[in-house]
Amino acid sequence: MIVLYNPRSNGSGKRILPMSLLALGGLLEGRRDYIIVDGNIETDPLTRLDHLAQAGARVLGVTVMPGPQLAQAVPLCRELKRRHPGLIIVWGGYFPTQHWDTCLRADYVDYVVRGHGEHVFLQLLDRLDQGSALADVRGLAYVAQGEPCSNPLASVPHPDSLPDFPYHRVPMDQYARACYLGQRTLPHHSSYGCPFFCNFCAVVNMVNGRWLAQSAERTANTVRLLHDRYGADAIEFFDNNFFVSEARTAEFAERIMDLGLGWWGEARIDTLLKMSQRTWQLMAASGLKMVFLGAESGSDETLKRMNKGGTASAEKTLEIVRLMRGYGMIPELSFVMGNPPDPEADIRHTIEFIRRVKQIHPATEIIMYMYTPVPLAGELYETAKAEGFRFPATLEEWVSPEWNTFSLRRSTTVPWLGANLRDLTHDFERVLNAYYPTATDPKLTRAWRLALRAASAWRYHLRVYRHPLELRALHKLIAYQRPETTGF
Ligand code: B12
User: Which SS3 state, helix, strand or coil, does residue 423 take?
Assistant: First the structure.
């Protein structure tokens, strides 16, 4: 039997359907005996997985993102391997795809599947059954002659050629959640990849500029199924870039018009700005409420250094904010701050830019990440290395508090960014989230919004951001939710 495990992914208790494992499950369905176990549901995952291993599970496949998931996967796999030396442990997902050699130096990780792994995983299972060679299994990394080695990445599978997610394998009811979009929000992932090469983004390492999508018809059918069978009244598309094709987007919006859903997805600003008024009207009428947009920076020079490509510019960010306000939609803008070589100037520039955005559309959601290198050739990573940046050499180091904070993109340990600058950004974030409380937190009452605004007004207008202890206390009192960590 194959066990597929989704380590706990965030402490907020909000569960996101483990689509990484459902995608694998789709291809195992009818071929292999398998089970999906989600650490966000399982109260004692070690005991559960231990029992499954005692009961004869032969392979444990683990999906691993950097951060909390990695922090749980390491001790769990180490202990399971100690108890069950014959259990074959396979890691896949964003972290092992990028740091396959570090993973394989740990004696509790036997194989790493890099990239989108449906076919690679199946091929590995067949080879393990046959006991045959692995050198030609594209996308696979393993230990040979005592050293980690990786075969070339496999081509990205086309999502339209892959089976539907086997939803019957997971307790769907436990994933439908209330949020800004609706009372029973469920996710989908209708495309793989992104055609751009931003050099701070891990997706490039996963797909190298490919973008392959399910048709508008197939995507709408899946959404209709989530609505009809699981009562979804809202959909989050976690695609890295849902809106690449205007034709697909417009047809999709038309096809779901009758469902009266609320929906959200991730897009590029310059791509959306090229879309016709008709497509915008279709998106608005079909329930598109909010779009996650990589604004990244208020400086065109920094956007160039990030290799943002296309026709991205700070002026375009202001343009999309105005346009979305006109359609009653909320832009969710993410910024990458503290970029070398001059992180202070970069942070102060983007803070002023964010203030301009908020003047145009106060409900705009602002997400601030600190520049967090990924192993991807490009000006930013080269500068980071020149400043002495090095990734940890062992998984044990990766799960240290310092590197866990790094993985959560809130690091202070990167050589070019001291605690002072990181704290300036977080203090500004605190003042901003008080002066403009998030529109996405349904439990934030009007009274609390007014209280937060009143308490933060002097700081916001006088640009006194440092040490907002009173606002920290207020946010704690109301358990203020930040969309980027909780999934809004
Ligand atoms: C949903 C999601 C979440 C959910 C959690 C989902 C869960 N699993 O429980 C939430 C909102 C909690 C979350 C949080 C975070 N996330 Co997140 N998340 C995603 C997102 C949007 C979708 C993941 C998904 O389901 N994709 C769909 C499936 C089909 O694709 P897939 O995951 O790539 O899986 C395929 C392959 O990777 C591979 N594979 C994956 N797992 C396995 C396992 C095995 C055994 C095998 C063989 C193959 C395999 O095959 C799969 C099928 O093709 C991705 C971006 C994306 N679009 O993929 C970001 C992403 C993975 N997250 C990211 C990050 C950084 C985070 C946070 C650190 C953000 C933060 N600052 O807090 C936290 C960390 C949480 C943690 N580590 O616990 C980054 C990782 C970047 C990096 N450096 O590696 C991504 C890539 C976003 C981005 N564009 O940067 N996240």
Answer: helix
